[in-house]
Design a protein that fits this description.
Elements lengths: L2 H14 L3 H6 L4 E4 L3 H25 L14 H29 L15 H14 L14 H30 L4 H6 L2 H5 L2 H32 L7 H4 L1 E4 L2
Antiparallel strand pairs: 1-2
């Protein structure tokens, strides 16, 4: 294009607000629908349940100082235990609902419950993502759903740990509901298997701290990916769409 033509185009852009050259050179933004509404709803309810369980669970293990006066006038620990049990039910029922949706939802809904551990290509991708998280690569590979490293972390760091917390939590709860209750019939075998109620309590509390560590790493990784990998993470679990900004 001649300089005169270029000047005319620049003048037109100033008047109309159009700049075709800049638009053509701009990075592509592509959005793909990944997470269905039930998955997103479960994610945020689950996050709230885990937060409530961690806070109330801490105070159950480290009770508040005794308050003066009649015990009947102060039911603080009773309320804390009630909220803890209610959140525990929400966590357990939510996981059952999430398992159901893995069967009827899209293939991304099944990533939480499956790992292609027999495929060598999967482990190569895990190593590649480990290098990315360790700042040894400039750019990560792009994935529509969970990346292979995140998928491994979700199965081992969340799913297995959550199942353990549900088993041990309801086993401890069954001591209060008594012999013959459905909690005792379903979960009563856990305490004899591990050894004693105190051992189950200690392991349950250890699981709480492991879950807190997992949540911290999960949030860090999601925000880091949102900023550095040029693909949406946090907003994807709100809208359902993964946006690639290249």
């Amino acid at each position: 294009m001649s300089p005169a033509g270029s000047s005319a185009a620049d003048a037109s852009a100033d008047i109309t607000g159009r700049d075709d050259a800049a638009v053509a050179a701009a990075p592509r933004v592509q959005s793909i629908y990944v997470y269905e509404a039930p998955v997103r709803l479960w994610h945020w309810i689950n996050a709230l349940a885990i937060t409530v369980l961690a806070v109330t669970g801490y105070f159950i293990g480290q009770p508040l100082p005794s308050m003066p006066g009649e015990a009947s006038d102060y039911y603080v620990m009773g309320y804390i235990r009630f909220v803890h049990f209610a959140a525990g039910y929400a966590l357990a029922v939510g996981l059952l609902g999430r398992a159901y949706w893995a069967l009827v939802g899209n293939h991304h809904a099944r990533e939480l419950f499956t790992l292609p551990v027999t495929r060598a290509a999967y482990w190569r991708e895990v190593r590649s993502m480990l290098a990315w998280y360790a700042f040894l690569r400039d750019r990560p590979n792009q994935y529509v759903g969970h990346n292979p490293m995140a998928r491994l972390a979700m199965v081992l760091g969340y799913l297995v740990l959550t199942i353990f917390m549900i088993l041990t939590g309801f086993a401890l709860y069954s001591e209060g509901t008594g012999v013959g209750s459905w909690q005792d019939k379903v979960f009563g075998w856990v305490i004899p298997l591990i050894g004693s109620s105190q051992q189950v309590h200690s392991l349950h509390r250890l699981g709480m701290w492991l879950m807190i560590v997992f949540v911290i790493l999960h949030v860090y990784a999601a925000i880091r990916e949102d900023i550095m990998s040029r693909q949406s993470m946090v907003s994807t679990m709100i809208s359902g769409y993964r946006t690639f900004k290249d």
